[in-house]
Amino acid sequence: MAVIYKENSKIFKGVLIFLIGLAIASMVGIFTLWFKGLGVGYGGTSETWSHFGSFFGGVLGPILSFLSFTAIIYTVYLQSDSNKVQALANKQAAEDRLASEKLAIKSQKDQRDAFQKRIKHEKQQQLLSFFINTFDELEKLGCEATQDLTEKNELGFVTLSYRTNAYAWKAHSTSLVVKRCIDKFDSESAELIHIYATKCSGQVNNFKRNIAISQNALINSTEEINELLEQWKATHCRFENALRVLKNKYFSTWKEESNNGN
User: Which of 22, 166, 211, 223 is exposed most, by the fewest CB atoms within 10 A?
Assistant: First the structure.
């Protein structure tokens, strides 16, 4: 823009100098024509000078008027051209300002998205940490409850103690929490939860089967054992249902991520 304006200013000065020079040359030419061409010279009467004034004004006046008119037209042209340049500069400035605003909006959106992703990631980490700790506790309780099936009293009988009850309660509550939180996992968390839940489901099923196998050696009542077996069966079913839902919901994503990793 500045280059165009500078170039126009240079052209305007050149044209102005040319018109001034042309006006001066016209005046010199008229004087030369009058004094030399017509042979009047610097002498003469007042009537002669009167004729000179009429001649000078009649010939030079239209020329100067034409040159002035030409200069005015050129000035108007330059003004119009300057307005166009200014309008173009204003348009460019508006586009630059709009682009800057869009860039600022995009930057804010990127920052907001990054913040939301970070919050989501932190929530997933907290949720994953909670479940991993829960599964570890459940596995530990399962190992302790297994002692009820191996420890015998002085009469050679086995009794299901508080350890089995604690394991049963923990397995029951964990299966419910896993089922309720299925939609809150992302793909990576769901895959890890699936691994841990599969392990815990197998442990629950093995413990239930061991109780069924050892029920004749238990001094607990038949009703109590049957009720306990039904509870373990329901808990195992909830684990298996949760595993099936996890697999149906995320298996395609796991497979795609695995293929991309290969």
Answer: 223
